[in-house]
Write a sequence for this structure.
């Protein structure tokens, strides 16, 4: 029996020696900034996982490459992945530099699969309604700590405080706070412009790198000047360019407005104030209806008083004309979807928030 | 210890080392093969056009959270739906301006939204063949994309990716094993290592899921089809007027559709989308302004340019309320040339924007920047016309400033202020865009 094992051993040895002969490639991974070698980086050849680089040398040798072009991909948590093409057998070594990624996870307990991914992005611009002009706002770009602090304040006072501004008759899931992953993206060379377009603009690299954001929030520090006329740019705005590119902007010092814009961007809630905005019946679990009948019927089926349905309209004031829209609302004032400074999400809006949260099943 | 036992021991040790090659640290290594399909779509004046479809490594967003009027579907080669989700129309920017804390605390801000990019990111679906975007309200197909070229291109770069292997014929790659350079092992160890892998192969379960990046490729064809003739929907409750306009538009080579009421107009728009609507203001029971509101409220019909036609003077209230909705305003009685000039102006403007956008795309000008300029340009042109009308209604002598009603003056002032701001911004954008155009040898924008 011992002889058989010996034969197998020798045959295997011969196979191993011969297997080492075809094209080999040594992949060395370095840090783009420090140029130090990077160990434990994951290396893939032509899409197949091959192993990790050694901690001491930052290298891994791949054997048995066929002649021709191959794709080498390197990934490592917290680093931006890189990909390059090599030609075997001409190239026997390749050095790939990987850079620290700009995405920072804020969850203490790590990412949760299936959660709602919210990414904050700093803007280098603000706006003055008095001067009708975009103004420079470099504070977030010059000071990551300040940006991080403001992001944390916004998260704690809005997303994680949602139970305080929603209807207690339709309570949120007890674990609603666990249904979010929060991140911020910080690259001083690529700030967002909160006032390029209604909801702002972010450099393209972000979208290529962060493919999974359910909402990206462009945060800017402060909006200057009181509203004077319709030529002023919006303080907050949301625009959905498709799954993965749902964008909103808001100033970090206006927490109610952030709730309002999040109402649009995350929960698909409709404005309940009367004005030049976009109205529709946001079924299912609408907070705005296209007829009194629809509003009353929805109220009845959810145990709410149908008499509370009223048209979206506003009487004339000294500075503005009267307004009337062919849409109906139910939530009482002060309603966050009607106000930028105070209020709560009413029972109808809370029902829709619950509906969206129920779709975020974490594991 | 007998040689047999010794060998068994070595084998066990090596088998273990092959399965856990780098000790405790290696246990945390989870190869990442998540992939997404990114479908880029251009939206312009109601038409959705495919820009590109590509596969890249990355995680997908949570599609279950999405809502909206559009439905995206990934289909397999037999046309069976493998994945679907809702999404919103990309033009819908919902802006709010903070107002007086004690008065109207929020002021609505909407944009024309006649152009926008759409970017749809969905997870890799193993047997995906195509993508469709439809309007959930009427089932209309808005755009489709063949995803096969994107998947093939990706798998040409990453044939060893488990999903690519599963998708196509077995990989031709030779078996290759890694050797960490920091552990330059004697050839005997390599051999034994190989044996362990060889033996472990039957035991090891390689069920890793993969992701990998690919270059972008255009795929599929645009869904939008341009009509040969430009179609004008004529809406007037005076059949004789409709007949007259129809006659001379037909003579000039336009296709026409007739409607004799606001409701008739809206009914036609549910079935057919013209290039332009010629809308009379004074109609019963639904007047032109009410009809206009309905046209602009429906996202499908919103991008259609509307030319208002009336014998009644434009009031300041109408101007204030509707200036962003209309594309021109013609007073009756009119000469044929006036109508042609107005229609040509609107349709040519539309075409100019389309052509300019194509050029901008080719030379790398930011699309949003170009679209913002296009929108501002249209607004400026319409607002100037409205100011002219308010200042000198047809059939009356030109008013002096003190003869003007306070309402007219206020609206004119407001529109003038807005126009001035818009002009400044447009000039700035035009300078920036023309700088790029010049550097690329492309004719500059002169509108």
């Amino acid at each position: 029996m011992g002889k058989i094992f010996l034969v197998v051993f020798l045959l295997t040895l011969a196979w191993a020696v011969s297997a080492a002969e075809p094209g080999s490639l040594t992949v060395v991974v370095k840090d783009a900034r420090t140029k130090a070698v990077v160990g434990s980086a994951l290396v893939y050849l032509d899409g197949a996982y091959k192993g990790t680089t050694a901690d001491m040398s930052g290298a891994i040798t791949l054997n048995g490459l066929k002649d021709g072009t191959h794709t080498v991909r390197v990934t490592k948590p917290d680093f931006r992945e890189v990909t390059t093409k090599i030609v075997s057998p001409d190239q026997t070594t390749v050095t790939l530099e990987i850079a620290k990624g700009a995405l920072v996870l804020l969850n203490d307990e790590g990412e949760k699969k299936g959660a709602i991914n919210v990414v904050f992005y700093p803007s280098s611009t603000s706006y003055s309604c008095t001067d009708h002009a975009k103004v420079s706002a470099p504070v977030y770009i010059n000071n990551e700590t300040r940006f991080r602090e403001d992001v944390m304040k916004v998260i704690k006072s809005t997303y994680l405080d949602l139970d305080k501004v929603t209807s207690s008759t339709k309570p949120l899931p007890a674990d609603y706070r666990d249904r979010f992953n929060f991140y911020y993206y910080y690259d001083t060379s690529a700030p967002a412009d909160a006032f390029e377009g209604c909801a702002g603009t972010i450099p393209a690299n972000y979208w290529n790198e962060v493919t999974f954001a359910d909402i990206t929030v462009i945060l800017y520090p402060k909006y200057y000047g009181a509203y004077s006329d319709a030529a002023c740019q919006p303080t907050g705005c949301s625009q959905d360019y498709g799954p993965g590119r749902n964008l909103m902007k808001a100033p970090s010092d206006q927490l109610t407005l952030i709730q309002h814009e999040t109402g649009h961007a995350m929960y698909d809630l409709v404005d309940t104030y009367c004005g030049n905005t976009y109205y529709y019946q946001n079924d299912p679990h609408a907070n705005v209806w296209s007829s009194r009948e629809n509003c009353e019927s929805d109220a009845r089926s959810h145990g709410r008083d149908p008499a509370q349905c009223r048209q979206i309209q506003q009487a004339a004031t000294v500075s503005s004309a009267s307004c009337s829209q062919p849409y109906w609302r139910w939530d009482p004032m002060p309603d966050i979807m009607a106000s930028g400074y105070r209020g709560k999400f009413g029972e109808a809006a809370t029902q829709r928030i619950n509906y969206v949260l129920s779709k975020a099943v974490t594991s | 210890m007998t040689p047999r036992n010794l060998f068994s021991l070595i084998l066990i040790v090596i088998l273990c080392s092959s399965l856990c090659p780098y000790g405790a640290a290696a246990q945390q290594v989870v190869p990442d093969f998540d992939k997404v399909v990114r479908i880029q779509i251009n939206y312009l004046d109601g038409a959705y056009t495919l820009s590109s479809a590509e596969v890249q490594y990355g995680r997908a967003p949570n599609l279950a959270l999405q809502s909206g009027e559009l439905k995206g579907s990934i289909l397999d080669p037999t046309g069976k739906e493998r994945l679907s989700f809702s999404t919103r129309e990309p033009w819908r920017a919902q802006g709010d301006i903070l107002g007086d804390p004690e008065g109207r605390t929020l002021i609505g801000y909407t944009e024309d939204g006649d152009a926008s990019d759409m970017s749809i990111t969905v997870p890799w679906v193993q047997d995906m063949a195509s993508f469709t975007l439809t309007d959930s309200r009427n089932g209309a197909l808005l755009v489709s994309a063949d995803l096969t070229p994107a998947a093939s291109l990706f798998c040409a770069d990453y044939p060893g990716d488990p999903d690519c292997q599963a998708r196509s014929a077995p990989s031709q790659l030779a078996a290759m094993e890694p050797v960490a350079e920091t552990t330059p092992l004697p050839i005997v160890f390599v051999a034994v290592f190989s044996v362990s892998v060889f033996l472990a192969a039957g035991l090891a379960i390689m069920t890793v899921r993969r992701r990998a990046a690919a270059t972008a490729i255009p795929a599929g064809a645009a869904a939008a089809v341009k009509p040969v003739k430009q179609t004008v929907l004529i809406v007037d409750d005076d059949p004789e007027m409709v007949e007259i306009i129809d006659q001379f538009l037909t003579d000039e080579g336009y296709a026409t559709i007739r409607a004799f009421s606001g409701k008739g107009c809206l009914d036609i728009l549910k079935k057919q989308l013209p290039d332009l609507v010629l809308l009379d203001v004074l109609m019963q029971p639904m007047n032109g302004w009410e009809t206009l509101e309905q046209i602009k409220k429906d996202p499908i019909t919103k991008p259609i340019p509307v030319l208002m036609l009336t014998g009644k003077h434009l009031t300041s209230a109408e101007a204030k309320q509707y200036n962003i909705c209309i594309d021109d305003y013609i007073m009756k009685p009119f000469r044929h040339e006036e109508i042609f000039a107005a229609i040509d102006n609107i349709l040519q403007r539309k075409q100019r924007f389309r052509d300019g956008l194509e050029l901008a795309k080719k030379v790398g000008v930011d699309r949003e920047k170009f679209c913002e300029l296009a929108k501002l340009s249209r607004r400026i042109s319409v607002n100037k016309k409205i100011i002219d009308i308010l200042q000198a209604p047809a059939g009356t002598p030109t008013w002096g400033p003190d003869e003007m009603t306070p309402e007219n003056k206020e609206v004119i002032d407001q529109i003038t202020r807005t126009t001035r701001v818009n002009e400044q911004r447009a000039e700035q954008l035009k300078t920036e865009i023309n700088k790029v155009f010049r550097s690329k040898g492309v004719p500059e924008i002169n509108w």
Summary: Residues 13-27, 170-227, 394-403 of chain B have pLDDT under 50 and may be disordered. The CA atoms of residues 276 and 324 of chain B lie 16 Å apart. The first helix of chain B runs from residue 3 to 19. Chain B touches chain A through 105 residues (CB under 8 Å).
